[in-house]
Amino acid sequence: MSATRRGRSARANDAWEAVLTAHSVMMKNFARSRVWENASMREYDVLYTLSKSPEPLRLSELGKHLLLSQPALSRLVERLEERGLVSRCSDPDDGRAVHLSLTDQGRDLQRHIGLIHGREVAAAVTAALDDEELATLRDLATRLYTAQEQR
């Protein structure tokens, strides 16, 4: 491997480590927030993902957006359903499949947490980055995940 290639690889790994470290530190700080009294961060991830979808999602579709195994996600969805935050309905095209959607109570909780958490995220990120840097970070992160989704 050429010195240039090795250097690019090292820079890529340094950048990746910096992204992961930033994520880890910020998530630990966010986890201390009182906003998670009515739903854990993982529960909120499910509520948030469902809130962004214009139509109900299959469990497998939901799982594509979360860092949970299928069995762990199934258990989490069951708990959310028991709490009245998520509902299941049969897939009209596939009797074996189930669609998931937010209940009114789930949507209200997601919005409540989302408003507070959104302010906390904005405060943390804008404390470190100016507007141009925010746009650059968004663009770079979008390029990274878009390239991976196309693999």
Helix fraction bin: 55-70%
Mean pLDDT: 93
Structural class: mainly alpha
What can be said about the biggest beta sheet? 3 strands, antiparallel
Tell me which CATH architecture of the largest domain applies here: Orthogonal Bundle
Unreliable stretches covering 5 or more consecutive residues: none
Tally of distinct domains: 2
Quantity of strands, as a count: 3
Helix-strand sequence: HHEHHEEHH
In what range is the share of β-strand residues? Answer: 5-15%
Strand order of the largest sheet: 1-3-2
The CATH class of the largest domain is: Mainly Alpha
Query: Gyration radius, to the nearest Å?
Result: 19 Å
Our measurement of the CA-to-CA distance between the termini, rounded to an integer number of angstroms, reads: 24 Å
Characterize the overall form: globular
What is the CATH homology-level superfamily of the largest domain? Winged helix-like DNA-binding domain superfamily/Winged helix DNA-binding domain
CATH topology of the largest domain: the name is Arc Repressor Mutant, subunit A
**Number of helical runs?**
6
Describe the SSE topology.
Layout: H1 3-31, H2 41-52, E1 57-58, H3 59-63, H4 70-82, E2 86-91, E3 94-102, H5 104-126, H6 131-149
Antiparallel strand pairs: 1-3, 2-3
Helix pairs in contact: 2-5
Kindly list the characteristics that best describe this protein.
Arc Repressor Mutant, subunit A, single chain, mainly alpha, 3-stranded antiparallel sheet, 11% strand, globular, 151 residues, 6 helices
